[in-house]
């Protein structure tokens, strides 16, 4: 596989894999030429029409992911090399740990670096040396965009498919606090009026969640006793211990939401890492 093909796979996977749609659609992205980070950042409805992606939920999730798609450090290196027709060295450079322009800027022994990468063509060596020098002079802009931990969207959850309106939902994983627990990826409805996480009974059973205690749940027309279970909510690399109640739908409340920063508009919900207190 060429460096170009490898990078194409990486950039498409970065967009589609987190939302569970890589296997379903990656070949359409490749065959229709949507294989560059700049393309994926600017996807719109017409692009999905071109690729014959018709499922409304899939379309919504792809566009939401595209809205927050940002160029990776490895992607910056690839496009930096590509400007000078040297992208064939991309894989080797990244494998050696130079996976961002910031790291490339820190190269001190340029000749040793080129020997490591096995750049032996004299013209290419001279070109790379000039490129690194320009990096050090600050003539190449280096950005570090914030990547969201997760991207939610307005959809109708499967358990509430007959609802009149769409709900704000997020795909995340849930598991048990027990060591070596399995995780199950699910779509969660955002419920700002609740301080617990609800899970469908079958998920609680599959995960084998342990009962913490019994609580009194006050509804509009009645009061019932419900069992509270210990669980773990996971989004990207962040894990939170949660209290779970069985319900007919999956939802997360304020107990989870308050651990993140949020940006919400009429299409997407960005989950961002909470800034540390000064």
Structure annotation, total helices = 12
Mean pLDDT: 84
- Beta-strand level of the residues, as a percent range? 15-25%
Number of strands: 10
CATH class of the largest domain: Mainly Beta
Described by the principal axes of the CA atoms, the overall outline is elongated
Q: How does the helix and strand content classify structurally?
A: alpha+beta
Over the alpha carbons, how many angstroms does the gyration radius reach? 23 Å
Q: What CATH architecture label of the largest domain applies? A: Beta Barrel
What is the CATH T-level topology of the largest domain? Cathepsin D, subunit A, domain 1
What is the CA–CA distance across the termini?
47 Å
User: In the residues, how many domains can be counted?
Assistant: 3
Give the ordered list of helices and strands.
HHHHHHHHHHEEEEHEEEEHEE
Low-confidence stretches: none
Percent in helix: 25-40%
Biggest β-sheet description: 10 strands, mixed
At the fourth level of CATH, the homologous superfamily of the largest domain is Acid Proteases
């Amino acid at each position: 596989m060429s460096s170009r093909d490898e990078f194409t796979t990486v950039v498409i996977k970065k967009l589609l894999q987190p939302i569970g749609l890589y296997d379903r659609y990656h070949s359409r992205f490749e065959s229709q030429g949507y294989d560059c980070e700049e393309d994926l950042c600017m996807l719109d409805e017409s692009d999905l029409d071109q690729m014959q992606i018709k499922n409304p939920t899939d379309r919504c999730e792809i566009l939401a992911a595209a809205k927050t798609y940002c160029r990776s450090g490895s992607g910056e290196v690839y496009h930096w090399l590509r400007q000078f027709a040297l992208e064939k060295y991309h894989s080797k450079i990244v494998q050696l740990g130079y996976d961002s322009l910031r790291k490339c800027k820190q190269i001190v022994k340029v000749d040793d670096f080129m020997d490591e990468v096995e750049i032996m063509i004299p013209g290419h060596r001279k070109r790379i040396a000039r490129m690194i020098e320009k990096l050090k002079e600050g003539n190449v802009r280096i950005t570090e965009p914030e990547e969201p931990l997760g991207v939610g969207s307005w959809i109708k959850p499967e358990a509430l498919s007959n609802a009149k309106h769409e709900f704000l939902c997020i795909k995340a994983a849930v598991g048990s606090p027990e060591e070596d627990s399995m995780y199950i990826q699910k779509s969660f409805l955002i419920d700002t009026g609740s301080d617990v996480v609800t899970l469908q009974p079958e998920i609680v059973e599959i995960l084998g969640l342990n009962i913490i205690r019994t609580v009194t749940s006050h509804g509009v027309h009645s009061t019932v006793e419900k069992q509270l279970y210990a669980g773990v909510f996971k989004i990207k690399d962040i894990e939170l211990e949660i209290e779970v109640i069985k319900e007919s739908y999956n939802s997360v409340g304020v107990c989870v939401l308050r651990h993140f920063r949020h940006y919400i508009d009429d299409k997407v919900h960005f989950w961002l890492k909470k800034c540390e207190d000064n």
